[in-house]
Amino acid sequence: MFTVQLTLGEQTWEAEGSSIKKAQHAAASKALSETTLPKPTPRPPKNNVNNNPGSITPTVELNGLAMKRGEPAIYRPLDPKPIPNYRANYNFRGMYNQRFICMSTHGTG
């Protein structure tokens, strides 16, 4: 699991995803819905542009918003959070199907 921190102006958001790209999209989506920054007025649509709103990812939309405001959207991968109460098994004795051959030290005969 990847965690990303997004900073836009003075505001910060964190999000997780199974890849860095998915974590960035989640952080951008969260920022777009929660930001208190004023959004710029939309331009009239161009005729030759794909009018499918689902084709623009939240990351692209947020980066465009940040560019119009003259502020950078800064994405930083965060260190993975440690697993709570994890203890390494120092009593590990090998695989369950590992075979051991015991050699006899006593002579026969």
Describe this structure in words.
With 109 residues, the protein is of the alpha+beta class. The protein has a domain at 2-42 and 53-78. The chain is 25% helix and 18% strand. The protein contains 2 helices and 3 strands. It has helices at residues 20-34, 58-69; strands spanning 2-8, 11-17, 73-78. The protein has a 3-stranded antiparallel β-sheet with strand order 2-1-3. A hairpin with a 2-residue loop joins strand 1 and strand 2 (11-17). Helix 1 (20-34) packs across helix 2. The model has no long low-confidence stretch (mean pLDDT 76).
Walk me through the topology.
Elements: E1 2-8, E2 11-17, H1 20-34, H2 58-69, E3 73-78
Antiparallel strand pairs: 1-2, 1-3
Helix pairs in contact: 1-2
Mean pLDDT: 76
Q: Strand share of the residues? A: 15-25%
Oligomer: single chain
Number of helices: 2
Total count of strands: 3
Q: Using the alpha-carbon principal axes, give the shape.
A: elongated
Spatial order of strands in the largest sheet: 2-1-3
The N- to C-terminal Cα distance equals 62 Å
Structural class: alpha+beta
Percentage of residues assigned to helices: 10-25%
Main β sheet profile: 3 strands, antiparallel
